[in-house]
Specification:
single chain; 9 helices; 7-stranded mixed sheet; two-stranded antiparallel ribbon; 45% helix; globular; alpha/beta
Length: 302
């Protein structure tokens, strides 16, 4: 019989890539963490991590066991919610979201959910997809409103096959310029035309994405500022610090003195959707996803 606590320890080790960091997260000693992992390996008869001076990495067997650990954690969380519903008559729904997507899609979807399922208790937490998608896998949240660029979902260590992804909308990134800029009256821009411009950006991932596209266009962008807020980045553009690359859903409210110009195809796009673990007994989750899709369709229609 595999010890559930040992699986939990392995999952945290995989998340942090180090016995020391996992020990701090679990409030155990590094020696205790190492002993849990070693005991799990003895019970399985094979290694689950490869140890080195740079930390630890999962073996193939380790990846399988982390997937099992997440499945167990999700099932235990689901069982706890069912028991709570029996005793209180109320259903819990925990939703993770990134900021701009939540601002656009969540309010009306939440209103729709509470109208259909009035005894649902809602919990909202904000976070970027690389932080929230693993929470869905582990059962810590019921669903995540998330996005990815042109690569795979940023699900973190461990298998992603348990996640069900429902696409909602495509969110193209636009160039934001001062109205007095020499290119402000263009219908669309090629990134190569912006090679000499300074940039201020709304998040680190946008900077990495810009650099990737700029490399294809043959230049290295001069980034003078990176913020964690798209409105702040646009405010810096209005102050004359440079230009910016902003997702379409983060272009409101308008800031006087600025204009927005699309990037010529194929331009950078965020793909927005909902990540869940498929279950057949969660009508409130189904209602909520349908409400999010309705809101996304309304946005596309505008």
């Amino acid at each position: 019989m595999i010890d559930v606590q040992r699986l939990r320890v392995l999952r945290v080790v995989a998340e942090h890539g180090s016995f020391n960091q996992a020990a701090a997260a679990l409030r155990l000693t590094p020696s205790a963490v190492s002993q849990h992992v070693a005991a799990l390996e003895r019970s399985l008869g094979t290694q689950v991590v490869a140890r080195s001076t740079r930390g630890v990495t999962l073996t193939q067997a380790g990846h399988i066991m982390v997937g099992a650990a997440e499945a167990v954690a999700a099932e235990l969380e689901h069982a706890q919610q069912q028991v709570a519903r029996l005793s209180t008559g109320r259903t819990q729904l925990s939703v993770a979201t990134f900021t701009s997507g939540g601002r656009l899609l969540l309010p009306a979807a939440l209103t729709r959910l509470t109208a259909v399922h009035p005894r649902t208790v809602l919990h909202i937490r904000e976070g970027e997809p690389e932080d929230t998608l693993p929470l869905v896998r582990q059962g810590a949240v019921d669903l995540a409103l998330a996005y990815h660029f042109d690569g795979p979902l940023p699900v973190g260590p461990g298998p992603s096959s348990r996640l069900e992804w429902t696409p909602l909308l495509e969110d193209p990134l636009h160039v934001v310029l001062p109205r007095v800029h020499r290119l402000a009256d263009r219908d669309a821009l090629d990134l190569a035309e912006l090679a000499a411009e300074p940039w201020v950006l709304g998040c680190l991932k946008t900077e990495a994405y810009l650099r990737r596209y700029a490399e294809r266009a043959g230049f290295d962008p001069e980034v003078r500022g990176t913020t964690t807020d798209y409105f702040f980045a646009r405010s810096l553009v209005a102050a004359g610090m440079g230009i910016s690359l902003i997702p379409s859903i983060a272009l409101a409210p308008e800031i006087p003195g600025l204009c927005t110009v699309p990037i010529k195809s194929p331009g950078p796009i965020r793909h927005i959707g909902v990540a869940t673990i498929s279950r057949g007994d969660r009508p409130h989750v189904t209602t909520f996803i349908h409400a999010l899709r309705e809101q996304a369709l309304q946005h596309i229609g505008h």
